[in-house]
Amino acid sequence: MDDHDTSYRLLFSHAEMVRDLLTGFVPEEWVAELDLDSLEKMNGSYVSDDLRSRHSDAIWRVRWGHDWIYIYLLLEFQSTVDRFMAVRILSYTGLLYQDLIRRQELDDTRELPPVFPIVLYNGEARWRAPTCVSQLAQPGPAALAEYQPDQAFLLIDEGAFDMDRLAPLNNLVAALFRLEHHRSLAEVPEVLGLLINWLDKPEQEGLRRGFVEWLRRRLRHWAPGANLPEIHDLQEARDMARDTVQEWKDQHHQTGLRQGLEQGLEQGSTNEARAILRRQLARRFGGVPSEVNDRLEGASRGELENWIDRLYDAATLDEVFQ
């Protein structure tokens, strides 16, 4: 487990994060019936009967009426998708049940509580693996069907969300996803500003520290080679991100896009300048829609210069062409 994984798990050791994950990213009506004030973190380390130590990521329980529902939150940081994740979830759920039985934590009915497994995945590639054990098993005689395991889990694939749709949400997990999958460093100070406003209460100090620990590791990844000072709070992180963005603008604005554009214009080739701008738009925003491409085709030199000036400051493709 690397430092990034550890800091990510630290964030989800706070009830506020689990609450916002459930309310913002679990599309089930029964979530509204939960008493989210009752969220309670459980033991997350088990030893199976053959004495092999097994560690989960975050186990919570929450009241549903008079009963408890256990939230099994598995934070998954693999660079590749695990085809057999559903089998791991099946195993972990069994270990949770064994632990509850061993600790005599069942209620008077001696019935096992419901478990809701969630896999939170933040890899680069989109998740394509089965989310249910039955989808991994070979078909057998129909008479055996009732004896087969059928464990499933809810997949939350961070990178599959439209970050623009997450922007209006007053939700800590949405802010985390936007930071994790930002399209440019220029978006980071805005999101950090939201966190500063949302986490301003004294009792939220632990969660603020959790975000700072996570940011210390991520900022080095987002700005490789940059001389980043040590940060101690979210305000320092926002100021540092702003300074880094401005420094990059100052260093690369003239020598990067503008240089290529001016070179093309000096050669009398508006087409060449247009091609440079198109490449940079695609690199920054992941593609150039047909309507934008049509606009580029009909653009004058002055329009191209204006758009290139806006590119580094714009958080979205639309802002380049406002």
Automatic annotation (TrEMBL):
Residues 266-320 form the DUF4351 domain. Pfam families: DUF4351, Transposase_31. Residues 3-196 form the Transposase (putative) YhgA-like domain. InterPro entries: DUF4351, Rpn/YhgA-like_nuclease, Transposase_31. PANTHER family: INACTIVE RECOMBINATION-PROMOTING NUCLEASE-LIKE PROTEIN RPNE-RELATED (PTHR34611:SF2), PTHR34611. This is Transposase.
